[in-house]
Each structure stands twice: as C-alpha cells, then as structure tokens.
UniProtKB/TrEMBL annotation:
It is a single-pass membrane protein. Residues 47-152 form the General secretion pathway GspH domain. One of its GO terms (biological process) is protein secretion by the type II secretion system. Its main location: membrane. Keywords: Cell inner membrane, Cell membrane, Membrane, Methylation, Transmembrane, Transmembrane helix. The keyword Transmembrane applies. It comes from the Bacteria. This is Prepilin-type N-terminal cleavage/methylation domain-containing protein.
Length: 159
C-alpha cells in the first residue's frame, strides 16, 4: 500500500480572499469621487434639458394662446426654479430643481432682463417696448455649460 496524498480541493485560501477584498475596496474608494461627479453632471444636464423644454413650452403657449408669455427663472430659498407667466403676470407653470442651485449660474446677453424672456404671440423674443430682441441664456454648473440662443425669428438653438 502506497502513501495516499489528500485530494486537491478547489477553492481560495483566506489570504487570497482578503487580498481580493482589499483591492476591491481600494478601487471602489478611488472610483467613488468620480461617480459622485458623474451624478452631479447628470443632474445638471437633466436640469438644462428641463430649462430648454420650459423655454420651448413658453414659446408654444405664446403662439397657441395668441398672447405674450414670460419665461422667468431664478433662485428662491436655495432652490432654482423657472416660471411661465401670462401677460397679466399670472403663473401658468413652474418647475423646481431641488438641491443644486448653489452650483449653478445663469447669465444672459441681449435680453433686457437678466431673469426672463418674453415671447410675443408669434413666438419671437421681445423687450418691454415690444421690439424683437435676440439673446442668449447660458446655464453653467458642474464643470459644464449649456447655451440657449433665442433668435429674433423665434428659433431657439441649443449650443
């Protein structure tokens, strides 16, 4: 009778499991800040999309109701929001973007106001004296920016 050696069993040793878990922990620790930045960026892009759709909705309402409509934006109590108002300044729609207002900036050029665009019944941007005005709104935050150009013809272009 010869010597019998124990059969080899498949599996990992305790030290192999500990090393694997340590490596996974290090990789997760390095990836977490990047993941957080990605989620902030995704929220910003979603908010920029909603801003654009709100701008277009205000324009559609002006055309369909054959009246002047104001698309107004700003920060209220730490929350960024936009409002769509009729010519009598009655709010028709609004949208809040919770928790991100401190990281965003909005700048405008060409419009008579820094916080709203008024659309005529033809869907064209106008100033207080009802003169057609071209302008841009730049929505910035999270290391990214979106620029919306509203042309005199009513075309809204997203850059």
């Amino acid at each position: 009778m010869g010597l019998r050696y124990p059969r080899q069993t498949a599996g990992f040793t305790l030290i192999e499991l500990i090393i694997t878990l340590a490596i996974l922990g290090i990789v997760a620790g390095l990836a977490w800040p990047r993941f957080q930045g990605f989620t902030d960026w995704a929220k910003f892009n979603e908010a920029a999309d909603q801003f654009y759709y709100g701008l277009r909705q205000a324009q559609r309402l002006a055309i369909s109701n054959n009246t002047y409509i104001k698309f107004q934006w700003g920060e209220e109590s730490g929350t960024f929001k936009y409002k769509i108002k009729n010519k009598d300044d009655v709010e028709l729609e609004s949208k809040n973007f919770n928790g991100l207002a401190s990281t965003w900036t909005i700048s405008t050029t060409g419009f008579p106001s820094q916080n709203y665009v008024r659309f005529s019944q033809w869907g064209c941007p106008v100033d207080e004296s009802l003169q057609f005005k071209k302008g841009t709104v730049t929505f910035s935050g999270c290391g990214s920016s979106q620029t919306f150009t509203v042309y005199v013809t009513g075309l809204i272009k997203r850059n």
